[in-house]
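Project outcomes to date are best conveyed with an example. Our students and postdoctoral researchers have been running inverse folding experiments weekly, and each run begins with a structure described purely in C-alpha cells. The record below, which covers 713 residues, was selected by the lab manager from last quarter's runs and is presented without edits.
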C-alpha cells in the first residue's frame, strides 16, 4: 500500500506473497476511492423529528439507541428486536460481537444474507450428511462441474478464489474437463469442455438425469457407496423418469450432450462440483443441491484415508479430517419458529425472506426494531415494495454502514464504521468459509495479519463494527460472551464461550486471540510474519475411519424424493402471460450494491443493462440501448436493453443491487442517465414470496428464473 502523509494513494499486489502472487482485483485496487469517497460517512447520523438525517456523536447515538431499545424490549420483549447481518456483517470479530449482543439481549431473531443467497446448499448438506474427510480441490482435479455459478467473475469458489482465471488457465492446460450448466454462456462457460445451456430453473431435472445415467451405466464408485451410504435403491427408483429424452424435453438441452457430460464427469479420477446462486435462487434449489451432493458421493469424489489435506487450517481451530461420513441432521424445524408461512429456523439460519413479514404482521412476535449490520435490504431482499413498507413501519432502524444507502434513507441512526486499513485485518473469515463449504475459502493453508496502516480521518467519529455492539451492550448493562467453534463440521472442539470484560474494553487483537485460541498455528506467529505465508504440514493426511463409526450419507431422503416426483409432473409454473425468465448475474467491478458511486469502477457503463438475445429483441422490436418495462406478477422495473448472443432465447439476464426509489423510476428516472449509477432498478422488486414459488423451508422465493414479460417503453 502506498501511503503518503497518512493517506492511502494506491495499492499493488505483493509478488512475494506465496498465495496471491501479486494478484488483486479491480474492486480491491480501488480501495482509495472507497476510503475517500465523498459519500463516506465520517460521523454517525440520527434522524431529526423533521425526518432529516443530521450528524451526531457516537456517545450520543449509543445512549439514545440504548434507551429506545430498552423501551421496546420492556414493552414487547427482546424478540421484538432483530438483527440482519449482510455481506459486511459476517466478518470477524464484528459478526461474533453482533451475535453476542443479541444473545445477551435475549433475542433469537438473528438473520443473515445466507437464506437469500444459497440456502439449498446448507439444507441439502443436512439432509444428505457430510463427508468428514473433506473434498478434493480444483488444483488436483481432472473434472469439475459448475451449476449456476460463474466463479471467473464472482470469485466465490470452486475455482480458487484468488486469481481464478489464472488457475483455470493452468487447469485447462493440464487437461481438466470442466462442465458448466448455465442458461448464459458465462465467462466460465466460455472455457468449458461442455456447456449445457438449459432452460433456467430446471437444474434439478438436469442433475437427476445425470444421477440416473451414472446409476444406469454403472459409472459410480460401488465400494464407496456400499460402505458409506443408505437408500441407493430409493434414489434409483425416483430418478428413473429422468431419462435423457425427458431431460431434453424439459430443460431443452440435447440428450446426447447430457449423456456426454455425465460420462466425462463420472470418468474423472479426481473431481468436484459447485452450485451457486443461479441454481439456489431458482425453483427447487435445495433439490438441485441435494442431487449434486448425491452425484459427488456416487462418483466417490471425496478424500480418502491417507490423502493429503490441502488446507489443514491455520487460524481457525478445527478438527482433523477423517475418512467417514457425518450422518444427516435436521435441516429445519429449529427454534425460533416464525409466524410467516410456517417457517422456522434452519440449518442455514432464519429465513430472511420472512423478516419483512415479521416486521409487518401485527400482534405478539412483531419485530419492531432492526439493527442492519453491513447489509442493504432495499436492494438485496426480495420484494422491494414489501421491504419498503416493512422498514417504514419500524419503531427503530439502526444501520451500521459507511454510507447512506437506499436502506439508510429509512434509518433512525447510522453508525459509521472504520474501514480497512484503519483497522487490523486477518484472514480468519476466508479460512472459516472453507469449513462451511468445500472449495469456498482458502484451499491452501494461507494466513496473513495486517495491523492498522493509517489513522482515521481528522474530525471523524468512527467505531470498529464490533465496538458498536460492545459499547451498546455495555450501555444497556448486558454481559457479552463470544462464542467460537460455531458450526464447525464436526462440532469439535466443542463450542467455546468466552465472557468479555464489560468494564475494560478489549482490543481488536485480544478478540482475534479469543477467536483463534487452540488454532494449529498460533496467531502470534502469523502476526510476526509481516506478509502472508503458507503454513504447510505435509504430514497432515486424512485419518482412517473410526471402526465404531455408524454414520452414513443419505441418498434417498423422503422429502427430496417427494420433490423429485413432483418435478416429473410439474413444470414450475410457466405461463403465456410471462414468457421470459429473468436470471440473476453479477457484475465484475461492483459487489452487490457496493461501488456504484465509484466512478472509476462504473465509468465504462453508466447504467446496468438487461441483457437479451438479439432474436428475442428483433421479435419484440426492441433496439439495443432502448428502455423496456419488465413486469412480473409482483411489479414492473425499467431497464436499458443490451443485446447478447450469450443468452439463450427467452432469458433476460440482469444484476441486482440497484434501485433507489421505485416511484422515480419510469417518471423522471431515466435508467440510462449518469445518476442511474446508483439508481437503476432492483431485480428483487420482481420477486415475491407471496405470489411465486418459494422453497418451503428456507423460504427463498424465485430470485432467478423469475417469469416476466417485456415491452418497449
Ligand atoms: N434480485 C437479487 N437479489 C439478491 C441477489 C441476487 O443475485 N439477485 N443476491 C443475494 C445475495 S447472494 C446476497 S449476499 C445479498 C446481499 O445482501 P446485502 O449484504 O444486504 O447487500 P450488500 O449490497 O452487499 O450490502 C453491503 C453493505 O455493507 C456496507 N459496508 C461496506 N463495508 C462495510 C464495513 O466495513 N462495515 C459495515 N458495517 N458495512 C460495510 C456497504 O456500504 C453496503 O451497504 O443480496 C441478495 N439479493
Ligand atoms: N464481482 C463480484 N463478485 C461477487 C459478487 C458481486 O456482486 N460482484 N457477489 C458476491 C456474492 S454475495 C456471492 S453470493 C457470490 C455469488 O457467486 P455466483 O453464484 O457465482 O453468482 P453469479 O456470478 O451471479 O453467477 C450465477 C450464474 O448462474 C446463472 N443462472 C441464473 N439462473 C440460473 C438457473 O436457473 N440455472 C443455472 N444453471 N444457472 C443460472 C447466471 O447466468 C450466472 O452466470 O459472488 C460474490 N462475488
Ligand atoms: Mo451472496
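After processing, the design step wrote out the following sequence:
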Amino acid at each position: 500500500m502506498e501511503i503518503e502523509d497518512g493517506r492511502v494513494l494506491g495499492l499493488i499486489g505483493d509478488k512475494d506473497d506465496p498465495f496471491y502472487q501479486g494478484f488483486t482485483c479491480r474492486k480491491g485496487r480501488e480501495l482509495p476511492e472507497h476510503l475517500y469517497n465523498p459519500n463516506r460517512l465520517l460521523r454517525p447520523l440520527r434522524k431529526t423529528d423533521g425526518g432529516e438525517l443530521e450528524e451526531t456523536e457516537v456517545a450520543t447515538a449509543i445512549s439514545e439507541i440504548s434507551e429506545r431499545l430498552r423501551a421496546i424490549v420492556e414493552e414487547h420483549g427482546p424478540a421484538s428486536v432483530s438483527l440482519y447481518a449482510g455481506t459486511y456483517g459476517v466478518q470477524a470479530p464484528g459478526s461474533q460481537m453482533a451475535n453476542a449482543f443479541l444473545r445477551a439481549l435475549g433475542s433469537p431473531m438473528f438473520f443473515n444474507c445466507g437464506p437469500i443467497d444459497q440456502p439449498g446448499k446448507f439444507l441439502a448438506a443436512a439432509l444428505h450428511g457430510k463427508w468428514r474427510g473433506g473434498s478434493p480441490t480444483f488444483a488436483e482435479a481432472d473434472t469439475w462441474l459448475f451449476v449456476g455459478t460463474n466463479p471467473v467473475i464472482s470469485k466465490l469458489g470452486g475455482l480458487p478464489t484468488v486469481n481464478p482465471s489464472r488457475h483455470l488457465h493452468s487447469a485447462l492446460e493440464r487437461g481438466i474437463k470442466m462442465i458448466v450448466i448455465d442458461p448464459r454462456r458465462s465467462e466460465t462457460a466460455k472455457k468449458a469442455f461442455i456447456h449445457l445451456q438449459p432452460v433456467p430453473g430446471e437444474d434439478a431435472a438436469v442433475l437427476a438425469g445425470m444421477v440416473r445415467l451414472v446409476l444406469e451405466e454403472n459409472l459410480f464408485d460401488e465400494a464407496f457407496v456400499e460402505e458409506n451410504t443408505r437408500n441407493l435403491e430409493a434414489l434409483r427408483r425416483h430418478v428413473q423418469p429422468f431419462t435423457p429424452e425427458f431431460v431434453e424435453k424439459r430443460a431443452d438441452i440435447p440428450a446426447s450432450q447430457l449423456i456426454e457430460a455425465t460420462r466425462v464427469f463420472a470418468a474423472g479420477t479426481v473431481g468436484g462440483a459447485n452450485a451457486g446462486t443461479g441454481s439456489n435462487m431458482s425453483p427447487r434449489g435445495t433439490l438441485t443441491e441435494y442431487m449434486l451432493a448425491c452425484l459427488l458421493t456416487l462418483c466417490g469424489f471425496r478424500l480418502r484415508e491417507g490423502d493429503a489435506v490441502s488446507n489443514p487450517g491455520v487460524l481457525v481451530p478445527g478438527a482433523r479430517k477423517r475418512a467417514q461420513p457425518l450422518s444427516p441432521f435436521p435441516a429445519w424445524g429449529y427454534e425460533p419458529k416464525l409466524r410467516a408461512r410456517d417457517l422456522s429456523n434452519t440449518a442455514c439460519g432464519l429465513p430472511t425472506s420472512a423478516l419483512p413479514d415479521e416486521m409487518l404482521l401485527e400482534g405478539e412476535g412483531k419485530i419492531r426494531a432492526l439493527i442492519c449490520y453491513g447489509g442493504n435490504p432495499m436492494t438485496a431482499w426480495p420484494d422491494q415494495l414489501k421491504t419498503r413498507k416493512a422498514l417504514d413501519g419500524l419503531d427503530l432502524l439502526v444501520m451500521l454502514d459507511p454510507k447512506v444507502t437506499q436502506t439508510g434513507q429509512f434509518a433512525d441512526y447510522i453508525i459509521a464504521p472504520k474501514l480497512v486499513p484503519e483497522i487490523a485485518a486477518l484472514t480468519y473469515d476466508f479460512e472459516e468459509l472453507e469449513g462451511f463449504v468445500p472449495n469456498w475459502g482458502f484451499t491452501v493453508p494461507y494466513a496473513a495479519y495486517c495491523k492498522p496502516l493509517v489513522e482515521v480521518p481528522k474530525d471523524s467519529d468512527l467505531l470498529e463494527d464490533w465496538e458498536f455492539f460492545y459499547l451498546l451492550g455495555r450501555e444497556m448493562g448486558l454481559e457479552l460472551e463470544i462464542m467460537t467453534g460455531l458450526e464447525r463440521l464436526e462440532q469439535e472442539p466443542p463450542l467455546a464461550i468466552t465472557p468479555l470484560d464489560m468494564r475494560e474494553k478489549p482490543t481488536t487483537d485480544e478478540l482475534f486471540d479469543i477467536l483463534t485460541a487452540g488454532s494449529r498455528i498460533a496467531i502470534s506467529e502469523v502476526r510476526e510474519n509481516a506478509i502472508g505465508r503458507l503454513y504447510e504440514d505435509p504430514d497432515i493426511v486424512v485419518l482412517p475411519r473410526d471402526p465404531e463409526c455408524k454414520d452414513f450419507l443419505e441418498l434417498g431422503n423422503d422429502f427430496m424424493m417427494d420433490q423429485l416426483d413432483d418435478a416429473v409432473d410439474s413444470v414450475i409454473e410457466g405461463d403465456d402471460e410471462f414468457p421470459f425468465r429473468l436470471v440473476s448475474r453479477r457484475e465484475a467491478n461492483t459487489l452487490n450494491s457496493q461501488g456504484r458511486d465509484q466512478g472509476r469502477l462504473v465509468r465504462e457503463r453508466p447504467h446496468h443493462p438487461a441483457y437479451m438475445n438479439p432474436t428475442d429483441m428483433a421479435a419484440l422490436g426492441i433496439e439495443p440501448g432502448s428502455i423496456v418495462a419488465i413486469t412480473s406478477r409482483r411489479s414492473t422495473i425499467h431497464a436499458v436493453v443490451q443485446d447478447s448472443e450469450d443468452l439463450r432465447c427467452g432469458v433476460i439476464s440482469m444484476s441486482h443491487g440497484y434501485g433507489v426509489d421505485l416511484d422515480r423510476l419510469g417518471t423522471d428516472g431515466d435508467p440510462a442517465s449518469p445518476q442511474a449509477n446508483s439508481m437503476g432498478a432492483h431485480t428483487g422488486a420482481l420477486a415475491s414470496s407471496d405470489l411465486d414459488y418459494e422453497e418451503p423451508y428456507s423460504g427463498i422465493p424465485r430470485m432467478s428464473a423469475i417469469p416476466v414479460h417485456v415491452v418497449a417503453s
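The pocket of MGD (ligand 2) is lined by residues 87, 117, 147-151, 153-156, 181-184, 186, 200-201, 203, 276-279, 282, 583-588, 590-592, 653, 704-705 (CB under 6 Å). Confidence is low (pLDDT under 50) at residues 486-492, 661-678. The training component of this project remains on track.
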